[in-house]
Description:
The chain is of the alpha/beta class. The protein has a single domain, classed as Rossmann fold, CATH 3.40.50. The chain contains 7 helices and 10 strands. It has helices at 44-51, 74-84, 100-111, 116-129, 145-157, 175-192, 203-207, and strands at residues 4-13, 18-28, 33-37, 59-64, 67-68, 85-88, 163-167, 195-199, 211-216, 219-220. The strands form 2 sheets. Strands 6-7-8-3-9-10 form a 6-stranded mixed β-sheet, with helices on both faces. It has a 4-stranded antiparallel β-sheet with strand order 2-1-4-5, covered by helices on one side. A hairpin with a 2-residue loop joins β9 and β10. α3 packs across α4 (116-129), α3 runs parallel beside α5 and α4 packs across α5. The longest helix has 18 residues, at 175-192. The protein starts with a strand and ends with a strand. The model has no long low-confidence stretch (mean pLDDT 93). Adenosine-5'-diphosphate (ADP) binds at residues 13, 16, 18, 20, 38, 40-46.
Amino acid sequence: MPLLQLVGVSKTYGEHDVHALKQVDLTVEDGQLVALMGASGCGKSTLLNVIAGLDDIQEGDIAFDGISLKGLSDEKITAVRGEKIGFIFQFFNLLSTLTVLENVTLPLELLGRQSHKQRMAAAREMLHLVGLEDRDQFFPAQLSGGQMQRVAIARALIHKPKLVIADEPTGNLDSDNGAMVLALLSKLNKELGQTLIMATHSAEAAAIADRVIQMKDGRIVT
Length: 222
Ligand SMILES: Nc1ncnc2c1ncn2[C@@H]1O[C@H](COP(=O)(O)OP(=O)(O)O)[C@@H](O)[C@H]1O
Ligand SMILES: [Mg+2]
């Protein structure tokens, strides 16, 4: 069974009657690194958001890890996604009043399963992985853009999600920091077997992918 399967997914933003996704079919196997490309406005972020359960769809179905979205309550969707998906945003979306350590542990706090000690140990392991163990007490404003994105990656991965979704993760970084973030994502995919779907405009990002999907005007074209 594939990790993720979309069948005939359509999404309309009602207020403005924008057909952002039109009958999208997509299958992603466990462990794949998929790059999602296409012009601005073609529907990449919308696709990632509906996969993550951050936005609803009007038609079709999305099955993730053997669970169909159809008929699930919002609450249940949030619970499934909170546990199994990690999201990396273009603008990092770190919480400015929390330290690096607190930002990274947040998903575990929300899941509320582990002890404080276990959460701290997991956070230190993640910060080590992204090379920022010496910045744990810093606030986001005290970091460079590349460091902020590495913290965001640590936060997205701390609960060991099956699927990592990244929306233009290097879109706001200079080329050196972008290259560092891509190397990290590629390493996580290879070493941890983490499935990754990444929207991107960059050829460097597409180059680390197993598979490149092109979108145009709300549809997948290749
Ligand atoms: N909240 C929204 N309300 C109305 N239209 C939206 C909203 N979000 C995105 N759109 C529209 O949906 C289309 C796809 O947008 P998006 O998924 O953000 O594209 P991309 O990420 O590829 O640049 C665009 O035409 C955009 O204007
Ligand atoms: Mg976008």
